[in-house]
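Q: Sequence in, structure out?
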Amino acid sequence: MNMNVKTPWHLWAVGGVSLLWNAFGAVDYTMTKLKNMSYLAGMTPEQQAFLFGFPLWANVGWALGVWGSLIGSLLLLARSRHAVAAFAISLLGLAINSAYQFGVKGAELQQLFGIGPMIFTAVIAAIIIALLLYARAMAAKGVLR
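A: Exactly. Output:
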């Protein structure tokens, strides 16, 4: 491994922007899990009940997705090759949670929230995949140690 590999400027840009993006997900997860009613005030009681009713396996997926991405961003900024694994775990978590939301509860989700969650989840998936591929590329170039 070449320890003299220069860190490209875009690693700091991608890492910083991804950390801000993933921090929003962490706040959303935390406020929802803490049932912060000020944060959830824009939702109907039925929408809140839907979010609070996730089974353990869907909650585990959600946690892996959120915290895997946040940790991945921090590891990217730390130039750690483990960012690749963190983003892969995040993608797995998103897949698990999506299986519940769109598979098991798809009709109820669409009735309560419309098509927005499907679009937003597709955007999230695209970002996680891009971050995973970026981290893999930086690891392959020796930027991540």
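The radius of gyration is 17 Å.
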